[in-house]
Amino acid sequence: MTKVAILWHMHQPFYEDLVTGEHILPWVRLHALKDYYGMIALLREFPTVRLTFNLVPSLVVQLEAFAEDRAKDRSLDLSLKPAAELTDDDGSSWRTSSTRSARG
Q1: If we measure between CA atoms, which residue out of 34, 24, 28 comes closest to residue 100?
Q2: In this predicted model, what pLDDT tens digit does every residue of 2-14 receive, in sequence order?
Q3: Tell me, what DSSP letter sits at residue 71?
Q4: How many Cβ atoms sit within 10 Å of the Cβ of residue 62?
Q5: Which DSSP helix (H) or strand (E) runs through 81?
Q6: Which among 1, 41, 49, 90 is least surrounded, fewest beta carbons within 10 Å?
Q7: DSSP string over 2-48
């Protein structure tokens, strides 16, 4: 019998601006919603598969901040704001955030 070790290494840089407390890029929140849970949920289809998830400390700290509603995420705040309430400054913030995200 062949045995294979599977290790999924999860990492994200520390995106929180320590001065403002704002997460400058949305990747931790977005990956948590669309990837991290899905990877674990996939294991339900393969109950005999055993694997290891390695989460780096900077990722754990940020995930906990989002889970405990302590994280500030400008991208999320803007996306939840009704269009009629958006200001010119909001549009400028969104463009700046989108440009930073596209480079990441």
Answers
A1: 24
A2: 988 899 898 889 9
A3: -
A4: 22
A5: none
A6: 1
A7: -----EEEE-----B-TTT-BBSS-HHHHHIIIIIHHHHHHGGG-TT
Convert the pLDDT of each residue in 86-103 to its tens digit: 888 877 666 555 555 554
Q: Can you tell me whether residue 55 is helix, strand or coil? A: strand
- Please give the residue that has the higher pLDDT: either 59 or 37: 59
pLDDT for 24 equals 87
How big is the chain by its Cα radius of gyration, in Å?
17
Cα–Cα distances (Å) from 56 to 14, 61, 80, 91, in that order, read: 10, 9, 29, 34
CA–CA separation, 35 vs 19, rounded Å?
Answer: 29
